[in-house]
Design a protein that fits this description.
With 1240 residues, the chain is an all-alpha fold. Among the domains are: 532-625 and 632-660; 661-784; 786-861. It is 75% helix and 0% strand. The protein contains 51 helices and no strands. Helix 17 (397-408) packs antiparallel against helix 18, helix 41 (978-997) runs parallel beside helix 43 (1030-1046) and helix 42 (1008-1023) packs antiparallel against helix 43 (1030-1046). It is flat and about 125 Å long.
C-alpha cells in the first residue's frame, strides 16, 4: 500500500505563528516540536533567551506575606502616549543613539591626534573602540536584567567587524596587521555569535573587503557571495535559520555595498551578486517577521531586482550572470508556485532570457565567430547582425514552457498570460523582421508564428483552448503577411501602388469567403471574426493605394481598371449582407453602401469613369432592393441618387463623339428632371406595390433636395446679373425659374393625393427672395447706395411683419419671414457706418422683438433683439457725440458709453411694467435681467477708466456717472442682497474718480478710513429698518476693513484707532461679541504703524500685542470656556505664547530677555497650572540654553565634543537603567502624565 501512495515533491514549508509570550502552553509546544525534530535545540535556546519572558509554573507553597515595598505600583494599562517609551524599540534606539554620539565625539577627539600617527596607529584607534564595545557587550551579557541591552551591543559589535575590515584595507594595513586583526576578529565573532558557522560567514564577509585598491579582490566575490547564499537557503549545518543571523549577514553585505557606493574603487556591477544575496537574506528574514513584513519584503526584492539589472550590464562576467539567474530565478519560481501572480511569471521569463544570453557568452570567441560566419554564408546575408537577430527566435519558448507548466497545475489564467506573452514576443520579432530584416529572412518568423499559432489552435494541446481568438488573429495575420512577402517576388505588378492594391483586394475577398463559409457555426467564430476585420483593413488599405496610383502615377485606362477592381469590395460586402453571418449583415449593408460612395473618389479625374461608376452603384443598390432585407428607404434613396448623378454626369461629359451639354442647358435639364421626378412620384403614390411606393418616396425626397439646391444657385446668379450691368443676361435663367416654379406648383397641387403637406414655407421664402432681387434691381437702375439697399430691405421687413400679423393665425410658421429681412438688413449695413446705421439696427431689433412676442418659447430672440437695440443706440450716441464734439478723448468715449448703458438700464427697469409687456410681450424678469445686463456693461466701461487719463470736463463726467451709480442703490433698497455690496463698491469707485478728476479732493486721503468707519455705522443703523438686514450688516462689516487695506501705505495710526473703535461700536450695535477681536486687530495694526513710523525694529514690540490678543481671547471669551473649549483654548495659548517666545529668541537668544520670559512663562504655567505656558516656557528656556552653548562653543570648540561624549554615555546609561528599573520609571512617568492631563 505504501507504493500506491501519491508521490509529492519535497518543499520548504514556512509556518508563521502569532503567540503571546505570557502563554504557559508555549513551552509545551516548543518541547513537542523539539522532540519531533522540527526545530533545533539552538533555535529553541535562542527563542527562549530572546522572547520567552513568562514565569515558569512553581510548586504549591504556603502563602507568604509579601514584604512592603516603597516603590509605587505601575498602572495596569499604560496610556497611548507612554507606549513609545515602554516599547523595547525605544531602548534599542537610545542605545544606538548613545553609541553613535560616543563614536562620533570620540572620533573628533581622536582627530586632533590623527596626523601624529601612521596607518597602523589610526586603525589601532578604531580597534580600541571596537574592543571597548566588545567589553561592554560581554559585561551586559552576564547581567540577567540587561538582556535587550546586551543583545543590541552584540549585534553592534558584530557589524563593527566589516567596518574594521573596510578601515584596515583603506588604511593600507600590512599583512602582519591583517593576521593580528583577523585573530581579534575571530575571537570577537566567536563570542558575539551563538553559532560558529555564522561566525565564519561573518569573517568571510569581512574578507570581501581585502585588497580593493589593487583591483584583484573581485575574483573571489562570486564564490564567497554564492557560498553565503547557499548557507542562507540550503538545509544543513550552515543554514541561517535565525532571523538574527540573517539580519547580521545582510548588514555585513550592505556595508560592502555602502563601500562600493562611497568609493570609486569598484563599480556597482562588480557587487551585483552581493546585492542580490543581501536581498535574498532580507526576503528570508521578512518571512518570519511579525511586524513590518511588507516593508522588509519590498526592500529585499528591490535589492534583488537592482542587483540582477546591474549584473546584466556587465557582459564580461557571464558566470556572475548565471549565478544571479539561479538565485533570482529560484526566488521567482518559489513565489510563483505560492502566489501565482503574473508579475512573477513575467520576471521569471526575463531572468531565463538573461541566463540564455549569459550562457551564449560562455562560448569562446573563435567558436562564436565560426558559427556566425557559417550561418551568414548559409543564409546569404551581408551583415552579421542579421544572423544575431535569428538568435531571438527561441526566446518565445521560455514563456510558452512556463505556460504549459502552469496549465498542468490547473492555473488557466496564468497559463493564458504566459501564452499571450509568448505570442506577443513572436509578434514583436515579426514586426522587427518586417521592418529591418532582408526579404529572404522575413518568411522564417512569419512561418514560425503561423505554424505555432495554428498548431496550438488546431491540435489538442492544453493551451489551445485558452486563447482561441488570439490564436486565430495570429494565424491569419501571419499568413497574410507571408502572402504579401511572397507577392513581393511572385507578382511583377507589385512595383506600383495599383498592383499592391489589387493584392489586397484579392486577399480581402479570400478572407470574406471564409466569413461566408464559416457562417454562424460556433467552432468557426474566432476565424470568422478575424477574417471579417482583416478583410475590412485590407479593403481600406487597398483603397488608399489605388487612390494614390490613380491620381498620381497612371493613365486613364489603368485608372478605369483600378476603379473597377475596387468596386468588387462594396459588391462583396453587399453579398455578405445577403448571405453572410447574422451578426455581420447590418454592418456589411452599411459598409457596402458606404463603399459605393467611396469608390467614386477613384473616378473623379475622368467624367466618363465617374458616370460608369455611378451607374454601377445605382444598379447594384437597385438590384439589392429586390431582396427583403434591403427594402428600406435609404437604399432606394441612394439608388435614385446614384442614377440621377450618373445621368447628369453623362449629359455633362458626353458619350463617344458627343461632347455633352453646355452649362446653361445642363442646369435647365436638372429643372426638367424635377418635373419628371415629381410626375413619377405622383404616378407611384396610388400603387399597391410597396417597392414602387418606396422608390416614389425616394424620388420625392431627392427632387425636394435638388430644388432647394437650385434656388440659392439661381438667386445668386440673378443677384450677380443685377449688380453687374455690363454682363449680358442669358435666357436659361428664366427657363430654370419657370421650370422650378412649375415643378413646385405641381408638387403642391398633388400633395393631397400623396398625403404629404404642401411646401408653403418654401414658396413664401422663394417669393420673398424674388421680391428682394426685384428691389435690388430697381435700386441698381437708380444708382442707389448700400444704405439705400439696407433701408429698402428694412422697409420690406416691416411690410412683411404687418402682413404676417394678419396671416399669423392661418399660417403660424410664416412669422420668421420678417426676421429674414432683418438679418439681410444687418448684412447690407455691415460694410459701412454713418449716422443712420444705428437707427437701422434699432429697426431690426423692433422686428425681432415682435417676432419673439409671437414665439413665447424663443427667449433667445428677445435677448438678441434687445442687445441689437442697445448696440444701435450706442452707435447713435457715439457717432453724433463725436460729430458735435470732435476734440473728445478716449476717456470721454468710455464715459459716454457708460452713461448710455446706465440710461438704458434705467429705461428698461422703468418700462418693465409699462411698454414691455403690452408691445413686445416681455415679462418683468426678462426686462429686469436686461436692465441689469446694461448696468453691468456700463460698469465694465467705467472700469476701463482706470487705464486712461482724465476726461475733458471732469465735473460733468463725474456727475453723469452718478446715473450709473444710483442704479445699484435703488435695486439694493428694493431687494437688499448682493446689490447693497455692489452699490457700496461702485460708490467707492465713483469717489475715487472724483478724487482723480476734481481738484482739492486729494486732501481727504488721511480721512477716508474715518469716513468709511462712520459710514459703516450708518449703514448698520439703516439696515435695522430694512428686511432682510443681513446685506446691510455685511457691508458695514467689510467696508472699514477694505478701505483701510486699500490705504495701507498712507493711513495714519489715529485713523486705524477710529476703525478699531468703529468695530467696537458695531459689536455692541449688532450684538456680535467677536467683532471686538477685529477691533483688537486694527488696534494692533495702529501700534505697528506707530512703531514703523518711529523707526523701531524691535520684533518683540511688534509681536507682543498680537500674542497678547490671542492669550486675552483664550482667557475671556465665554464660548471657549469650560471643558468643550479646552482644546481650542490650549491652541490659542500656544499660538500667543509661541509667537512671543519666537520673537524673544530671534533677537534676544543669548541675553537675559529670553531667560526672563522663559522663567516667567514656566512660573505662570506652574502657578495657574496651564500646559501651554509651561510647554512654551520650557521650549524657550531650552532654545536659549542651546544658543548660549553654541556661543560658548564658538569660543571653546573642544567643549562640544566632551559634551557629546558625556551625552552619548548618558543615553546608554539611561537605556540600561530604564531596562532594569522599568516598573519604577513607568510608575513615575504615569503619575507625571496624569498630573499634566489635569492641567488646563
Amino acid at each position: 500500500m505504501a507504493d500506491l501512495a501519491p508521490q509529492h515533491r519535497d518543499h520548504l514549508l514556512t509556518i508563521e505563528l502569532a503567540v503571546r509570550t505570557s502563554d504557559p502552553r508555549l513551552l509545551e509546544g516548543l518541547e513537542v516540536w523539539l522532540r519531533l525534530g522540527l526545530v533545533s535545540e539552538d533555535w529553541v535556546r535562542e527563542v527562549a533567551s530572546t522572547w520567552l519572558t513568562c514565569p515558569l509554573p512553581v510548586t504549591a507553597r504556603s502563602p507568604v506575606a509579601p514584604a512592603p515595598s516603597s516603590s509605587p505600583q505601575p498602572a495596569t494599562q499604560s496610556p497611548g502616549r507612554l507606549r513609545a517609551i515602554t516599547a523595547e524599540l525605544s531602548v534599542v534606539w537610545l542605545l544606538l543613539l548613545g553609541a553613535f554620539l560616543v563614536v562620533v565625539s570620540s572620533a573628533w577627539l581622536a582627530a586632533s591626534f590623527w596626523s601624529q600617527v601612521g596607518g597602523v596607529g589610526q586603525y589601532g584607534i578604531l580597534l580600541l573602540y571596537t574592543m571597548l564595545f566588545w567589553g561592554a557587550a560581554l559585561w551586559t551579557d552576564r547581567q540577567a536584567r540587561l538582556r535587550l541591552t546586551g543583545q543590541t551591543l552584540r549585534a553592534l559589535v558584530t557589524l563593527l567587524l566589516p567596518v574594521n575590515a573596510w578601515a584596515a584595507d583603506s588604511l593600507g594595513l600590512p599583512l602582519w596587521g591583517w593576521f593580528g586583526a583577523g585573530a581579534l576578529w575571530l575571537m570577537i565573532a566567536w563570542t558575539m555569535v551563538s553559532r560558529r558557522s555564522v561566525a565564519l560567514l561573518i569573517l568571510l564577509a569581512c574578507g570581501l573587503h581585502w585588497n580593493w585598491p589593487s583591483g584583484q579582490a573581485w575574483a573571489g566575490v562570486t564564490i564567497c557571495a554564492g557560498f553565503i547564499a547557499l548557507a542562507a537557503a540550503w538545509p544543513g549545518r550552515w543554514q541561517l535559520r535565525s532571523r538574527h543571523h540573517r539580519a547580521l549577514m545582510a548588514g555585513s553585505l550592505l556595508i560592502l555595498l555602502l563601500r562600493a557606493l562611497a568609493t570609486q574603487i569598484a563599480s556597482l556591477a562588480d557587487v551585483a551578486l552581493v546585492m542580490v544575496v543581501s536581498g535574498l537574506l532580507v526576503i528570508l528574514d521578512a518571512r518570519e517577521a511579525t511586524r513590518a513584513k511588507v516593508g522588509l519584503n519590498g526592500l529585499g526584492w528591490l535589492l534583488v531586482g537592482l542587483g540582477w539589472l546591474l549584473g546584466q550590464t556587465d557582459a564580461t562576467a557571464p558566470w556572475q550572470q548565471l549565478t544571479l539567474a539561479l538565485i533570482v530565478g529560484g526566488l521567482l519560481w518559489e513565489r510563483l508556485q505560492r502566489s501565482g501572480r503574473r508579475a512573477d511569471l513575467l520576471g521569471l521569463t526575463l531572468v531565463i532570457a538573461g541566463a540564455c544570453r549569459g550562457t551564449a557568452a560562455l562560448l569562446p570567441d573563435d567558436w562564436r565567430s565560426s558559427l556566425l560566419m557559417a550561418a551568414q554564408s548559409l543564409l546569404e546575408l551581408r551583415q552579421p547582425e542579421q544572423v544575431l537577430g535569428l538568435l531571438w527566435l527561441p526566446y518565445p519558448i521560455v514563456p510558452g514552457g512556463l505556460a504549459i507548466a502552469q496549465q498542468r497545475r490547473d492555473r488557466p489564467d496564468l497559463a493564458k498570460f504566459g501564452l499571450g506573452l509568448a505570442l506577443g514576443i513572436l509578434l514583436l520579432l515579426n514586426a522587427y523582421a518586417l521592418a529591418l530584416w532582408p526579404h529572404n529572412l522575413r518568411l522564417l518568423p512569419l512561418s514560425l508564428l503561423t505554424t505555432a499559432s495554428f498548431g496550438l489552435a488546431a491540435s489538442r494541446s492544453p493551451l489551445g483552448s485558452l486563447l482561441p481568438q488570439v490564436l486565430a488573429n495570429c494565424t491569419l495575420t501571419a499568413a497574410l503577411a507571408a502572402v504579401y512577402a511572397l507577392a513581393r517576388f511572385a507578382l511583377p505588378t507589385t512595383s506600383t501602388p495599383i498592383g499592391w492594391g489589387q493584392v489586397g483586394i484579392g486577399a480581402a475577398l479570400v478572407l470574406w469567403s471564409l466569413v461566408a463559409i464559416g457562417g454562424d457555426r460556433s467552432p468557426w467564430q474566432p476565424w470568422v471574426k478575424t477574417s471579417w476585420w482583416l478583410g475590412l483593413g485590407l479593403a481600406g488599405l487597398s483603397l488608399v493605394q489605388l487612390t494614390h496610383g490613380v491620381w498620381e502615377t497612371v493613365p486613364e485606362q489603368v485608372a478605369t481598371s483600378g476603379l473597377l477592381s475596387w468596386l468588387v469590395i462594396p459588391l462583396a460586402l453587399l453579398g455578405l449582407a445577403a448571405i453572410g453571418p447574422g451578426r455581420f449583415r447590418k454592418a456589411a449593408k452599411g459598409l457596402g453602401a458606404g463603399g459605393l460612395v467611396l469608390a467614386q473618389s477613384l473616378a473623379i479625374a475622368s467624367p466618363q469613369s465617374l458616370a460608369l461608376s455611378l451607374g454601377v452603384a445605382g444598379l447594384a443598390l437597385g438590384a439589392s432592393s429586390l431582396l427583403p432585407g434591403f427594402r428600406q428607404g435609404w437604399v432606394a434613396l441612394m439608388a435614385v441618387t446614384f442614377g440621377w448623378l450618373s445621368l447628369s454626369a453623362l449629359t455633362g461629359a458626353g458619350v463617344g463623339s458627343w461632347s455633352g451639354l453646355a452649362f446653361g442647358p445642363w442646369v435647365t435639364l436638372q429643372s426638367g428632371l424635377l418635373v419628371v421626378a415629381w410626375g413619377l412620384w405622383w404616378l407611384s403614390a396610388g400603387r399597391s406595390n410597396p417597392l414602387l411606393r418606396l422608390y416614389g418616396q425616394a424620388l420625392d425626397r431627392w427632387a425636394t433636395a435638388v430644388s432647394w439646391l437650385l434656388w440659392p444657385f439661381t438667386a445668386l446668379r440673378l443677384l450677380v446679373l443685377a449688380l453687374d450691368g455690363d454682363q449680358p443676361q442669358a435666357l436659361w435663367e428664366g427657363w430654370v425659374i419657370g421650370l422650378l416654379l412649375g415643378a413646385i406648383g405641381f408638387r403642391l397641387l398633388t400633395s393631397r393625393r400623396a398625403g404629404r403637406p404642401a411646401a408653403i414655407p418654401g414658396l413664401l421664402w422663394a417669393g420673398a427672395a424674388a421680391l428682394e432681387l426685384a428691389a435690388a434691381e430697381t435700386l441698381r437702375q437708380l444708382n442707389g447706395s448700400l444704405s439705400h439697399y439696407a433701408a429698402v430691405t428694412l422697409g420690406l421687413g416691416f411690410i412683411c411683419l404687418l402682413a404676417t400679423e394678419r396671416l399669423g393665425r392661418q399660417f403660424p410658421s410664416r412669422r420668421w419671414l420678417p426676421l429674414g429681412y432683418g438679418l439681410l438688413t444687418l448684412l447690407w449695413r455691415s460694410s459701412y457706418w454713418d449716422g443712420w446705421t444705428g437707427l437701422l439696427m434699432v429697426g431690426v431689433a423692433l422686428i425681432g422683438l415682435r417676432v419673439a412676442a409671437r414665439s413665447p418659447h424663443q427667449r433667445w430672440l428677445s435677448y438678441g433683439s434687445l442687445a441689437i437695440a442697445s448696440w444701435g443706440w450706442g452707435e447713435l450716441a457715439f457717432f453724433w457725440t463725436g460729430h458735435w464734439l470732435p476734440a473728445g478723448t478716449t476717456t470721454d468715449a468710455l464715459v459716454l458709453f457708460a452713461v448710455v448703458a446706465g440710461f438704458l438700464a434705467w429705461f428698461y427697469d422703468l418700462g418693465r411694467d409699462r411698454w414691455g409687456r403690452s408691445l413686445f410681450a416681455l415679462n418683468g424678469p426678462t426686462l429686469a435681467w436686461t436692465a441689469h445686463g446694461h448696468w453691468l456693461v456700463g460698469t465694465g466701461f467705467s472700469g476701463l477708466l482706470w487705464l486712461t487719463a482724465g476726461p475733458t470736463h471732469g465735473s460733468l463726467a463725474w456727475a453723469a456717472l452718478g446715473l450709473l451709480v444710483a442704479y445699484p442703490w435703488v435695486q439694493g433698497w428694493r431687494t437688499s442682497g448682493l446689490w447693497v455690496d455692489l452699490a457700496v463698491l461702485q460708490t467707492i469707485a465713483w469717489i475715487s474718480w472724483g478724487r482723480a478728476w476734481l481738484p482739492g479732493w486729494a486732501a481727504f486721503d488721511p480721512h477716508w478710513a474715518v469716513l468709511a468707519a462712520f459710514s459703516a455705522i450708518g449703514l448698520a443703523v439703516l439696515g435695522q429698518t430694512r428686511s432682510p438686514k443681513t446685506a446691510w450688516e455685511r457691508v458695514a462689516l467689510w467696508l472699514p476693513a477694505s478701505i483701510s487695506l486699500l490705504l495701507a501705505g498712507s493711513i495714519a495710526p489715529p485713523a486705524l484707532m477710529v476703525v478699531a473703535a468703529s468695530y467696537g461700536a458695531l459689536a455692541a450695535l449688532l450684538r456680535r461679541r467677536r467683532l471686538y477681536y477685529l477691533g483688537l486687530l486694527f488696534a494692533t495694526w495702529s501700534i505697528w504703524r506707530s512703531l514703523w513710523l518711529a523707526g523701531s525694529m524691535e520684533a518683540l514690540l511688534y509681536v507682543g500685542p498680537l500674542g497678547s490678543s490671542l492669550i486675552l481671547a483664550a482667557e475671556i471669551d465665554p464660548a471657549w470656556q469650560g471643558a468643550k473649549g479646552r482644546s481650542l483654548r490650549h491652541g490659542l495659548r500656544l499660538a500667543g505664547t509661541g509667537i512671543i517666545a519666537w520673537a524673544a529668541f530671534a533677537q534676544h537668544s543669548t541675553d537675559w530677555v529670553s531667560l526672563v520670559l522663559a522663567l516667567g512663562a514656566i512660573g505662570a504655567g506652574i502657578f495657574w497650572q496651564v500646559r501651554a505656558y509651561l510647554l512654551m516656557g520650557s521650549l524657550l528656556l531650552g532654545a536659549a540654553t542651546l544658543a548660549n552653548f553654541v556661543e560658548l562653543n564658538a569660543r571653546w570648540s573642544f567643549l562640544k565634543w566632551l559634551v557629546g561624549l558625556a551625552l552619548g554615555t548618558g543615553m546608554i546609561w539611561l537605556a540600561a537603567t530604564f531596562e532594569t528599573q522599568r516598573d519604577r520609571a513607568m510608575a513615575l512617568l504615569q503619575r507625571w502624565s496624569d498630573d499634566l492631563d489635569r492641567w488646563d
